[in-house]
Amino acid sequence: MNTILSFKITFQAILQIFLLGSFGFALVKKNLITDEDLSFLSCLVIKFTLPLFIFCQLIEHFNFSNYQNWWFFPILSLIITAVGFLVGRLILVFYKNMPYKKEFLSLLGFQNSGYLPLILVATILPTSQKEAMFIYLFLFLLGFNLVIWSLGVRFLLKTKGKSLKLINEILSPPVLAILISLFLIMLGLNKFLPQFILKPLKLLGDCTLPLAMLVVGAGLAKIKIFKPNKIAISLLVFGKLIFLPFLALVILFLFKVDPMVGFLILLQAAMPSATSLSLIARHHRLEEEFINQGIFITHVISLITIPLFLGIYGKFVILF
Fold this sequence. Notes:
mainly alpha; 320 residues; Na+/H+ antiporter like fold
């Protein structure tokens, strides 16, 4: 993998996100989508299409027998998130006047762990390694989705002093989808689910990405993207896109981690902030502007940083 190829692949992947978001941006600018419409769409994604997407992915791609060390990857996602939060806390020690501390920590702790990695894996790796890496990603997302849609939501809700209802938030639809899927797989009941049921569920679940990006793009249309909190956003970019992947590279080279696992770790450490945070902020009426600024700018700058770090890793580690 060379730096030029990695740059091209990453640019195309992120460009797809911006193109999807641009439709929502344009619809708002043309006054074709109202705030009520956006609230409905974000609710539709969080409570309906996203749980279906998670359910279908796990039912189709995961089983406990073939991946006896499956538990390692959810734990790995928790570790990467925890390191992101620790880096954020360290930055706040030196910059105590951060205007949106919990939003800043969430943007540093949670990354775009699903869509971008899936596209990069599909494009970079050969078929023989691609299938295994997909499973690694799905297992990684078990821990990530469980945390962001439970503790992540709770963490952000505290920003506005809102209360958290256990059933409605901790056991949110995405989290329930994970638990139900694992339960069915553990009992072997997933084998008895007929395709005439799974196929329409998968079609609905596949609507998650375009709908989510439509909501994110529409949210961006309502903020001053190019007049951000300059110091806070600069620190976010440094911590998220430079320090975290650099730290991951150092650890991978020091401990000589398995190349495939190392690729997954570096890939996740180099990702921009999670677009899911925008959906959570809109759904719960939290601070959207700073979150959307952070998502937008980290995705733009990651066009350069992701291929840079993947290129460095590829020069020293043979993946295929």
